[in-house]
Write a structure and sequence with these properties.
The chain has 281 residues and is an alpha/beta fold. It has helices at residues 11-15, 35-39, 50-54, 65-74, 90-103, 114-120, 150-156, 170-173, 215-223, 243-255, 267-271, and strands spanning 8-9, 23-29, 46-49, 82-88, 108-111, 147-148, 162-166, 198-199, 234-238, 261-264. The protein folds into 2 domains: 2-120, 3-Layer(aba) Sandwich (Oxidized Rhodanese, domain 1), CATH 3.40.250.10; 147-271, Rhodanese-like domain (Oxidized Rhodanese, domain 1, 3-Layer(aba) Sandwich), CATH 3.40.250. The strands form 2 sheets. Strands 1-5-4-2-3 form a 5-stranded parallel β-sheet. The longest helix has 14 residues, at 90-103.
Length: 281
């Protein structure tokens, strides 16, 4: 898949460049205890719990561009290097790429298939936790054009020039749960979906090994729900916390070249709890 986008690199591409000092591998995880990372990770990969790197300490908000630059520097990561993100799970990689790109980090890429494909291919693993000497990073030039807020989304309901794309599980979309199946159901006060939203489960964009399906299959999947490069429509993707939404955004913008794709990062956790905002069941 790496030939479809310069921001999507294959395990073989990375394997050939593990000793390149200009490349840094970051494992961005949903697990603050780093259990999977410590069992085995891409050699040289630096670990970070997603909130510790990307979120404000107290607000449900991203860190500022300057703060992200500083936090990367604290773990020895240069914003001038090529950053290859390994997500655990995979959507945490596209989430980190999205946030870093908005902050102004220039060269961020995704390891296609993340940990799953890397391990399945029999590639080498390390088990030691790695750290680097802190460094000073320069300032970044942020851009939030790919982010959209709740009030803007509200204005786009029933707009024929907009596709609202819900990439949650079928159970969430049908209003049976507010979080993915298999765990404690939490995250919003109400069940349902944004009125008029079409559904495309994010896992349909991936193979079993967490690599993206082919460009042709992606085009077909998105076309079935009205998302086409030729349509010129605005696309707003959402899920529960926006991790899964970033995976669909990456497929649309970086693989298919759809320029008018945005992410509603408040997603259902916010929308489903706002007094007076409409829902559909």
């Amino acid at each position: 898949m790496s030939e479809t986008s310069p921001k999507l690199v294959s395990p073989s591409w990375l394997l050939e460049r593990l000793d390149d000092p200009a490349i840094t591998v970051l494992e961005i995880s949903s697990d603050p205890e780093a259990k999977a990372y410590l069992k085995g990770h891409v050699p040289g990969a630096i670990f970070s719990f997603w909130k510790d790197l990307l979120w404000h300490e107290t607000d449900r908000e991203f860190v500022s561009s300057s703060e992200l630059s500083s936090r990367l520097g604290e773990i020895g990561v240069s914003t001038d290097s090529t950053l290859v993100i390994c997500g655990d799970p995979v959507q945490y990689g596209t989430y980190a790429l999205w946030v870093m790109t908005m902050a102004g980090v220039k060269d961020v890429r995704i390891l296609d298939g993340s940990r799953t494909r890397w391990i399945n291919d029999g590639n080498p693993l390390e088990t030691e936790g790695l750290s680097r000497e802190p460094i000073d990073n320069g300032s970044l030039d942020p851009s939030i054009a790919t982010r959209i807020g709740r009030d803007e989304v509200l204005q786009k309901i029933n707009n024929p020039d907009t596709v609202l794309l819900d990439v949650r599980s079928p159970e969430e979309y049908r209003g049976e749960r507010v979080s993915p199946p298999g765990g404690f159901d939490h995250g919003a006060e109400r069940k349902g979906r944004i009125p008029g939203a079409v559904h495309l489960f994010f896992r349909e964009l991936l193979n079993d090994d967490d690599t993206f399906i082919s460009k042709e299959k992606l085009e077909r999947k998105f076309s079935e729900v009205g998302v086409k490069k030729s349509s010129g429509k605005d696309i707003v993707s959402y899920c529960r916390l926006s991790h899964r939404a970033t995976l669909s955004w990456f497929a649309m913008s970086e693989i298919l070249g759809i320029e008018k794709a945005q992410i509603y990062d408040g997603s259902w956790t916010e929308w489903g709890s706002i007094v007076g905002f409409p829902i559909e069941l």
